[in-house]
């Protein structure tokens, strides 16, 4: 008999995506099904989500704590969904968190409190065996269940500790939680209401998205004010690597590519490099080491380090394709770099899923120079698509990429290149080392084959999650 798990997330692919959380929430249910875990995913009823589910039947009317709300159930894109139809919170334009002006909705605290409240009501009212809450937006689910008449075990997954969901303490009076929930042993966080803190305090088990990140966040350097709580709960904290849905991310079938290819037939990949060069206005040079960076243009992601290392990249004869959106100052610097180096640097500011796939399928190497990285999906996509990544040695990047050092090359196990995080000079050196490897056709061919042979699927991680849920359901997880 399957265990029934309610996953709670603020976004999920293919319905709505702003980042890696959506990929995880969209892929993990399918990966858990062979393990005997039946996942239903609770999502807010944003306009795009409600359009996707149509007139789905209502399965639960919710108490009017945050305004009229009900839960609809539907199957969409292979996901078994519960949708929180709460017009007062979610029927509005913009992305899940910000309005059309790019600013956070001022009532985000109430909006995602409603999501946590709905999760608890669904877990109790619809008979789920466990709850899997993702990131701060789902942080109050465990707090509500902590004071419920029936205990439903909760796993809380941290996707990025930097995003904590802190709100004014006055909001606490709107939540309906008992006074005992306010305090250090509760949802209070340095005088504010902390949604992420609530999730960490209330969960039965805490996971994050890589083993190394699980260790890093228990230190003052990387714990972002929560390391003390995480150390106190160390026996309940663990890291489980993210994976990719191999059916969604498959260079042999991906329609976004100019030419499909595989590990067994890599030759067509050259057509993708030419197409990528054309899309970014780069010189059509098949021998130039082509680097790509895909993702948020942000300090955390190390985009400034790439720009500082650009002279070394260009000096090595390389080209750079930048795709992403983020901090205005970094966007401007990327545009300026492209203008200053026509044919050598190209920048596309915005989010384009198809172009991102072409970057993975056409670049020689993908840059992931994050200062910290809970897991990262870019390097997994790069491995899958044969673009051995150049990554900072931190978090999940350290867990998923084997550096092409002398011994690893001799052993034939290297899959990419690593460098110490936060150091532009070391990144410049790593870029030059990577360019040298790319120009050694035999060495790079071996590295690419190793990368594409990596198991970046959810199989191992799904088994770990399944064991965790089974243990909790049995009362001894």
Question: What is the approximate shape?
Answer: globular
Question: What top-tier CATH class of the largest domain fits best?
Answer: Alpha Beta
Largest sheet: 9 strands, mixed
The whole-number mean of residue pLDDT values reads 96
Domain count: the total is: 2
β-sheet strand percentage = 15-25%
Mind telling me the CATH superfamily name of the largest domain? Glycogen Phosphorylase B
Radius of gyration: 23 Å
- Intertermini distance: 18 Å
Question: Can you list the strand order of the major beta sheet?
Answer: 3-4-5-2-1-6-7-11-12
Proportion of helical residues:
25-40%
> What is the structural class?
alpha/beta
Strand count: 18
Write the CATH fold name of the largest domain.
Rossmann fold
Architecture of the largest domain in CATH? 3-Layer(aba) Sandwich
Low-confidence region ranges: none
Helix run count: 20
What does this structure look like?
With 477 residues, the chain is α/β, with parallel strands linked by helices. The protein has 2 domains: 3-243 and 458-473, 3-Layer(aba) Sandwich (Rossmann fold); 269-453, 3-Layer(aba) Sandwich (Rossmann fold). It has helices spanning 20-32, 47-53, 87-90, 108-125, 140-146, 172-175, 195-202, 211-216, 227-232, 269-279, 303-308, 310-315, 328-340, 353-362, 378-384, 395-400, 406-411, 424-439, 441-453, 459-473, and strands at residues 3-8, 37-44, 58-61, 70-76, 79-85, 130-134, 154-158, 166-167, 188-189, 192-194, 205-208, 237-239, 290-294, 319-324, 345-349, 365-368, 390-392, 417-419. Strands 3-4-5-2-1-6-7-11-12 form a 9-stranded mixed beta sheet, sandwiched between helices. A 6-stranded parallel beta sheet has the order 15-14-13-16-17-18, with helices on both faces. A 3-stranded antiparallel beta sheet has the order 8-10-9. Helix 5 crosses helix 7 and helix 10 (269-279) packs across helix 14. The protein starts with a strand and ends with a helix. Keywords: Glycogen biosynthesis, Glycosyltransferase, Transferase.
């Amino acid at each position: 008999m399957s265990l029934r798990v309610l996953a709670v997330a603020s976004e999920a692919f293919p319905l709505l995506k702003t980042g890696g959380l959506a990929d995880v929430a969209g892929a993990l249910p399918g990966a858990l099904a062979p393990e005997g875990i039946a996942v239903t995913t609770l999502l807010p009823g944003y306009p795009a989500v409600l359009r996707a589910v149509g007139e789905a039947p209502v399965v639960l009317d919710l108490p009017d704590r945050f305004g009229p709300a009900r839960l609809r159930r539907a199957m969409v894109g292979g996901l078994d969904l519960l949708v929180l139809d709460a017009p007062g919170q979610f029927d509005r334009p913009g992305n899940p968190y910000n309005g059309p002006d790019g600013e956070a909705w001022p009532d985000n605290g109430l909006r995602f409190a409603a999501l946590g409240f709905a999760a608890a009501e669904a877990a109790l009212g619809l008979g789920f065996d466990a709850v899997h809450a993702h990131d701060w937006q789902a942080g109050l689910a465990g707090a509500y269940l902590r004071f419920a008449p029936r205990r439903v075990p909760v796993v809380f997954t941290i996707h990025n500790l930097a995003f904590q969901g802190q709100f004014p303490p006055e909001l606490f009076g709107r939540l309906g939680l008992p006074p005992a929930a306010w305090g250090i042993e509760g949802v209070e966080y340095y005088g504010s209401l902390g949604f992420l803190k609530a999730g960490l305090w209330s969960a039965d088990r805490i996971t994050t998205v890589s083993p190394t990140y699980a260790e890093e966040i228990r230190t003052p350097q990387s714990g972002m004010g929560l390391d003390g709580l995480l150390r106190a709960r160390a026996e309940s904290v663990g890291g489980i690597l993210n994976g990719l849905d191999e059916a969604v991310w498959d260079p042999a079938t991906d329609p976004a590519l100019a030419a499909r290819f595989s590990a067994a037939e890599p030759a067509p990949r050259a057509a993708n490099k030419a197409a990528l060069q054309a899309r970014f206005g780069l010189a059509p040079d098949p021998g130039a080491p082509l680097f790509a960076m895909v993702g948020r243009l942000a300090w955390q992601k190390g985009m400034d380090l790439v720009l500082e290392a650009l002279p070394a990249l260009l000096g090595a004869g390389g080209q750079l394709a930048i795709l992403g959106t983020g901090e205005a100052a970094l966007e401007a610097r990327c545009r300026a770099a492209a203008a200053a180096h026509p044919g050598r640097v190209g920048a596309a500011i915005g989010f384009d899923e198809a172009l991102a796939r072409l970057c993975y399928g056409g670049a020689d190497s993908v840059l992931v120079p994050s200062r910290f990285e809970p897991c990262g999906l870019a390097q997994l996509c790069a491995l899958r698509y044969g673009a051995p990544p150049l990554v900072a040695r931190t978090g999940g990047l350290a867990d998923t990429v084997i550096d092409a050092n002398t011994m690893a090359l001799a052993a034939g196990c290297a899959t990419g290149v690593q460098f110490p995080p936060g150091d532009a000079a070391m990144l410049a050196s790593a870029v030059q080392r990577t360019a040298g490897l790319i120009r050694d056709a035999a060495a790079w061919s071996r590295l690419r084959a190793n990368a594409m042979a990596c198991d970046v699927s959810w199989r191992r991680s799904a088994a770990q999650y399944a064991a965790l849920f089974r243990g909790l359901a049995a009362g001894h997880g």
